[in-house]
Amino acid sequence: MTEKEIDNQIKNLQTVQNVTDVYQEVAAMRMRKVKTGIIQNRDFYQKLLEIYLETQSCYKKTTRSDKKYVTEYSKNTNGKAVAVLLSSNTGLYGSVVNNTFNRFVEDTRNTTEDLVIVGQLGKNRFEALANQRPFKYFDLGDGVDNIDIQIKPIFKYIANYSKIAIYHGIFKNIVDQPVKVTKITEDIEQENTDDKSLSFLFEPSVDKVLKTFEEQLLYSFFDQSVYESALSKYGARMLSLDVATQNVSKVLSQTKLISTKMKHRVQNKRQLESLKPWTN
């Protein structure tokens, strides 16, 4: 490798280093923007979701002998289950997108539930599988701008299902973004022999409380899952870019060292050549 080629390589590495620094700063800025609100709301929505599922369980027990009432109440759902993968449109998100995809594929491999894939990257990977199943695709930007507008058609589609499971990443810290499966509704007609539900007093009635949940809070549960997914991707991107920056810095240092050694060899050679007339 010539000295000119090494100099060009150093310039290219410095450019890559600057780009990764910029991407990392953008990811950090976006993460700070959404992190506080999402984490503050996390426990609230989790407890609210638990109460909603317990309300469903109570509804099943109180109406188990009244099949006509159950059928009338459930007429707005199709009685089927759906699994929703929240993927991404681009890369540079570390392992969280891959881990979520792998969990989604593994869990749905031998099931009959319908599939929904959100994000171009997940769509491309799923289509590349040997034994892929039919799925419904929705596009969704990787950022949080206009996210409420973008997810409305997705929720409108999945709201027809009796059981909804959302596969997404969740932010714990910069180095840990595990996969989470959020079940935002269960099939209220499914028999459940395990009596694990809490005891509540419902006012005015259990069916009206459950209806209020479904009309006003199901969208909020889905919305929170989408924001959780975005936050986990920001965290994963920061970690991925940090690793990339360290690798680029390491290669850059090694290349500069090679350049310095090469320049010293050239200088030594010139000095030796300048001494030749005197030695003769």
Report on this structure:
Helix 1 packs antiparallel against helix 6 and helix 5 (147-158) crosses helix 7 (218-279). Helix 4 (120-127) links the parallel strand 2 (114-118) and strand 3. With 280 residues, the chain is an alpha/beta fold. The relative contact order is 0.18. It has helices at 3-63, 67-73, 96-108, 120-127, 147-158, 206-216, 218-279; strands at 81-86, 114-118, 136-138, 163-169, 179-185. It has a 5-stranded mixed beta sheet with strand order 3-2-1-4-5, with helices on both faces.
What is the gist of this entry?
It contains 7 helices and 5 strands, in the order ααβαβαβαββαα.
Name the descriptors:
280 residues, 5-stranded mixed β-sheet, Pyruvate Kinase, Chain: A, domain 1, elongated, alpha/beta, 7 helices
